[in-house]
Specification:
The chain has 795 residues and is of the alpha+beta class. Helices cover 31% and strands 20% of the residues. Strands 12, 18, 22, 23, 24, 25, 26 and 27 form an eight-stranded mixed sheet that branches. A five-stranded antiparallel sheet has the order 2-1-3-4-5. Strands 11-10-17-14 form a four-stranded antiparallel sheet, with no helix packed on it. Its EC number is 3.4.19.12.
Length: 795
C-alpha cells in the first residue's frame, strides 16, 4: 500500500524527501526499561483522567510532555509563552553536555515524540527515520504502553503488541466516540478492509463528470479510503478522522454539532452512503450467437442478453451449476420493490441484480427480511421485503409477548421492568437466540397498532410475522437498549448472552428449505454503550484478523482482551461473519497451490472477484468484466492501473475455481495479454456517452423545479430508476427504461407500504416527458400532491 501524507494523523514524517536520523534517541535504549514510571497504575490514572501536571507549573494534558530518559521521566510543558521543556533540556544539557540525553519527549495524549535537540518529530512506525531496530522497538513499546489501559492480564512489556497492523486508536473530536466505535468495527471487517487495501484500484476517484465542483460525487469514499489506509498501513498508533467525520456531518444533519449520537444509526448512515458511492464496475453485454459461439459483443441497456449468455451459450458440462450460482448470488441486489406472493423466476432475480449498481457494501452487509401482515377479518396477506444493514432486535420483546399473554398484569410488569432498567437493577438475562426468536414470532396488531388492510380498506386487527430471506456475509445485530415509553424512558440493562462461535441463523429463515447451506456465524466485533439514556460513552471491541486476538478500542486507547472478557460484555451492536471450516480449508489449499506453482501457465483474474472468494461464502461466478470491456479488450479507463486490478494465478488453480464457481462468460486474460493497450472502441463510445451525460444534466437542470404552478400536477417516478439515472449522469452506465412497477401494482394501484423519497419521488411534467422520450417505460402515475396514496389526478 502506498504511504500517503495525511494532514490529520497524529504522526507525520519530518521530511518525505530524505530520511532523517536523531543522535539523541539512539542512546536511550541503553539506559534501562522503556516503560519505567509510565507503566504504573497511578500514572495511568493521571493520564486517563487528564490530571497529569507539569512538574514545574500547573499545565495539564495535552500541553505536557514526558522526558523519555529512563532515569528522569520528568513531566514538562511547552507553550508559546513559556517552555519548561526548553528549561529542562538546557539545565540537563549544561550538567551533562557530552551526552545531552534529556532531549526526547513524548506527549501522553497524542503520542507524538519530539526531539528538542534536533527540532523535529520522530515516528518509530515510519520508515522515514533512520533508527536502529533496537531503538525503534524501544519507542514502540513506550507508545504502546501509553496507549494501553491498565490491564491485569498483561504482566510484562514482552506481552505488548507493537507491530500488528490495525491497532490504531481514533482521536475523539468532541463526543465522537459513537463514530469511533462504529469505524473500528468496520475497519476490522476483513472483506471490507481487503477491498480498500488490496482492491483500492477499483475505488472510484473524485473525477467529476458533469458534477458541480462544489459538490463532488465521491464525498465519503475518499476520506473513508484514507481512514482505512491509516488504520492498516502501520504508520501511526493514533489517527484523527477529521475529514471523514466532517463529510458525514455534511451528509446528515443528525450528526452536526457536538452532542452524543447513536452509534448504530451512524453505522447505517455511513454504510448507506458508501453503498451509493462505491458501485462495482458494470458492463452490459449483448452476445450474438452463431453455432454456439460468441461472435460479437456490444453494449446493451438491459440485462436480458447477458442472462441469455448463462442460459444458452454455456456448455452444460463446463458450466454446470452456473444457473444456480446466478440465482443465489445475483438475487442479492438492491431493490425497493415490494415482493409479491408469487415466486420470483431466475430471470427476474437476475434482472433485479442488474437493475441498480451492486457495491462491496451491499454484498457484505445487506440482508433482507420479509414482513407478512395477515388481516384477521378478510384473511388477506400483504408481503413486503425490507433491506437492512443493521438488524434491529428488541431485547425485551420476549417479556412483552409473555406479558400480552398474561393479560392486564402486562402493563404493570412493563412499568416495573422499566423502573428497574432506569435504576440499573434489571437483573434479567436472555440469550441472543431468544431475542431473534421473538423478532420472528407472530405479533398481534390490535388497539392503537391496528393495520390498514389493503383488501378491506379499513383498520383491522392483524397478525405480523417477520422472517429473514437473505443473510449477509457480515451480520450486524443491534440490541435495542433504549426504550422511549410515554410514562418513562430508560436504558434496558438486561444482559444478553451471545455466542462467540457458531451462531446458527437457519431457524429464523422464512422456510427451513430456503435456509442457505452455510448459516453459521462467528463474532468479530462488538459495540458497547456505557452510561444511561441521557449520555454515555461508546467503546468498540474487535478481533484482529492478523494475530486473531481481541482488542478494546476506547478512543485512542487500544488494549488487548481475552474471549472470556468479551463474552461478559453488555453488547449494544454485534458484528458476526459467516464461517465454514470446509470453506477455510478450500482457501488454504488454493492459496498454497498459488504460492507453490511457478512453472505452469498463468492467467489473470479480477482482484474484486478474488477478494470475494477469500472472504465471502458465495463469491459468484468468476468474472473479468471488472477490467475487460464488452469488446474483449482492456477497459481504456482502467488500463493505467491494470497491474493493481488483477491477480496472477496458475492455470490449474483457475480450472479448479471455474469447476466450482463457473464463469460469467468473460474472456480469460493470459499473461501474453498483459501488455495490451486500452480499447479504442470503448474510448470513442465513452466520449459519446459523456456528451449525452452533459446534455441530459444540463437539460434537466434547466427544466427541473421544486414547485409547480396551480393547475399543474406531479409525475411520480421510481426512486431506484432516478438513482440509476443520477449514477449515469455522474459517469455510470445507462439506466435503462423507466420502471414504476417498483411502487405500482400491475393494475396501476399503489403497492402498500411505499415511502416517499425512498420508494418514489416526484418530477414535473417537463422532466417526466424528457425522461420518457429519452428512455421510455412507465407506467404513468399522476398526483396533485407528492403522495402516492392521494387521489389520482385527471388531466
Amino acid at each position: 500500500m502506498s504511504k500517503r501524507q495525511y494532514s490529520d494523523r497524529a504522526f507525520s514524517p519530518a521530511s518525505s524527501a530524505k530520511k532523517v536520523t536523531c543522535p539523541h534517541i539512539e542512546r536511550y535504549c541503553k539506559h534501562g526499561s522503556p516503560v519505567a514510571k509510565i507503566e504504573s497504575s497511578a500514572f495511568k490514572r493521571q493520564v486517563s483522567s487528564s490530571t497529569l501536571c507539569c512538574d514545574w507549573c500547573e499545565a495539564k494534558i495535552p500541553r505536557v510532555w514526558i522526558c523519555l530518559y529512563s532515569r528522569c521521566r520528568t513531566v514538562v510543558c511547552s507553550s508559546s509563552s513559556r517552555s519548561h521543556m526548553r528549561e529542562h533540556y538546557d539545565l540537563t544539557y549544561k550538567e551533562n553536555k557530552p551526552e545531552a540525553t534529556h532531549a526526547v519527549y513524548i506527549n501522553p495524549r497524542t503520542l507524538n515524540i519530539w526531539c528538542y535537540g534536533c527540532g523535529f518529530e520522530i515516528n518509530p512506525f515510519s520508515k522515514d527515520h533512520e533508527l536502529s531496530q533496537e531503538t525503534r522497538n524501544y519507542l514502540k513499546i513506550v507508545v504502546r504502553s501509553l496507549q494501553v489501559k491498565r490491564n491485569k492480564s498483561q504482566h510484562s512489556i514482552d506481552q505488548l503488541t507493537i507491530d500488528v497492523p490495525g491497532l490504531v486508536g481514533l482521536k475523539n473530536l468532541g463526543n465522537t466516540c459513537y463514530a469511533s466505535a462504529a469505524l473500528q468495527c468496520l475497519s476490522n471487517t476483513p472483506a471490507l478492509t481487503n477491498y480498500f487495501t488490496y482492491c483500492n484500484a477499483y475505488i472510484p476517484r473524485n473525477i467529476n463528470i458533469n458534477v458541480n465542483p462544489k459538490h463532488p460525487k465521491y464525498r465519503l469514499a475518499e476520506p473513508f479510503n484514507q481512514f482505512m489506509e491509516a488504520m492498516w498501513s502501520g504508520i501511526s498508533p493514533i489517527f484523527a478522522p477529521t475529514r471523514l467525520i466532517s463529510e458525514i456531518k455534511k451528509h446528515n444533519e443528525i450528526f452536526q454539532g457536538f452532542s452524543q449520537e447513536d452509534s448504530a444509526e451512524f453505522l447505517r448512515v455511513i454504510l448507506d452512503k458508501l453503498d451509493e458511492e462505491l458501485p462495482y464496475p458494470q458492463n452490459r453485454l449483448n452476445y450474438t450467437q452463431t453455432n454456439g459461439n460468441i461472435d460479437n459483443l456490444v453494449y446493451l441497456n438491459n440485462s436480458s442478453s447477458l442472462y441469455a449468455l448463462y442460459m444458452n451459450t454455456h456448455s452444460p458440462s463446463l458450466f454446470a451449476g452456473v444457473d444456480t450460482m446466478v440465482n443465489d448470488h445475483y438475487a442479492s441486489g438492491i431493490s425497493s420493490t415490494a415482493s409479491s406472493a408469487s415466486s420470483i423466476t431466475t430471470y427476474e432475480k437476475f434482472q433485479r441484480r442488474h437493475s441498480s449498481p451492486v457495491s462491496i457494501i451491499n454484498e457484505i452487509f445487506q440482508g433482507v427480511y420479509e414482513s407478512k401482515i395477515k388481516c384477521l377479518y378478510c384473511k388477506k396477506e400483504s408481503l413486503k421485503d425490507d433491506y437492512f444493514y443493521v438488524l434491529p432486535i428488541q431485547v425485551d420483546k420476549r417479556f412483552k409477548l409473555k406479558s400480552q399473554e398474561k393479560g392486564s398484569n402486562g402493563v404493570l410488569n412493563n412499568v416495573v421492568g422499566s423502573i428497574g432498567d432506569w435504576l440499573g437493577i434489571g437483573g434479567r438475562t436472555v440469550k441472543l437466540q431468544d431475542c431473534l426468536s421473538a423478532f420472528c414470532a407472530t405479533e398481534n396488531l390490535t388497539g392503537e397498532d391496528k393495520y390498514r388492510c389493503d383488501g378491506c380498506k379499513s383498520l383491522n386487527d392483524c397478525q405480523k410475522t417477520l422472517r429473514i430471506t437473505r443473510l449477509p456475509e457480515s451480520l450486524c445485530i443491534q440490541l435495542k437498549r433504549f426504550r422511549f415509553d410515554s410514562y418513562l424512558s430508560s436504558k434496558i440493562v438486561t444482559h444478553v448472552h451471545f455466542p462467540m462461535e457458531d451462531l446458527d441463523m437457519s431457524p429464523y429463515f422464512k422456510e427451513a428449505k430456503d435456509s442457505p447451506d452455510n448459516s453459521k456465524y462467528s463474532l468479530y466485533g462488538l459495540i458497547l454503550h456505557r452510561g444511561g439514556i441521557g449520555g454515555g460513552h461508546y467503546i468498540a471491541y474487535a478481533k484482529n484478523s492478523i494475530d486473531d486476538s481481541w482488542y478494546e478500542f476506547d478512543d485512542t486507547y487500544v488494549t488487548k482482551k481475552t474471549e472470556a472478557e468479551i463474552s461478559r460484555l453488555e453488547a449494544y451492536v454485534l458484528f458476526y461473519k459467516k464461517t465454514s471450516p470446509k470453506k477455510e480449508q478450500e482457501r488454504q489449499d488454493i492459496l498454497s497451490k498459488i504460492n507453490d506453482s511457478t512453472s505452469e501457465t498463468h492467467l489473470f483474474i479480477s482482484r474484486l472477484w478474488f477478494n470475494r472468494w477469500q472472504f465471502m461464502m458465495t463469491p459468484g461466478p468468476i468474472t473479468n468484466y471488472d477490467f475487460i470491456c464488452s469488446h474483449g479488450g482492456v477497459n481504456w479507463r482502467v488500463y493505467p492501473k491494470l497491474h493493481d486490478m488483477v491477480v496472477r494465478i496458475p492455470f490449474s488453480v483457475y480450472t479448479l475455481l471455474m469447476e466450482k464457481y463457473g464463469t460469467d462468460g468473460s474472456p480469460t486474460f493470459h499473461a501474453d495479454d498483459y501488455g495490451r493497450a486500452g480499447c479504442k472502441i470503448c474510448e470513442q463510445e465513452e466520449r459519446k456517452l459523456d456528451q449525452r451525460r452533459r446534455k441530459e444534466a444540463r437539460d434537466i437542470d434547466q427544466i427541473d423545479t421544486n414547485v409547480i404552478n396551480r393547475g399543474e400536477c406531479w409525475y411520480l417516478i421510481s426512486n431506484a430508476w432516478l438513482q440509476s439515472w443520477h449514477n449515469f449522469k455522474n459517469g455510470g452506465p445507462l439506466p435503462g427504461t423507466i420502471d414504476n412497477t417498483t411502487f405500482l401494482q400491475e393494475d396501476g394501484r399503489p403497492k402498500p407500504g411505499m415511502r416517499r423519497a425512498i420508494d418514489y419521488r416526484a418530477v414535473n411534467a417537463n422532466v417526466w416527458n424528457y425522461f420518457v422520450h429519452a428512455y421510455g417505460g412507465g407506467p404513468i402515475c399522476i398526483r396533485g400532491t407528492i403522495d402516492l396514496y392521494s387521489s389520482p389526478y385527471t388531466l
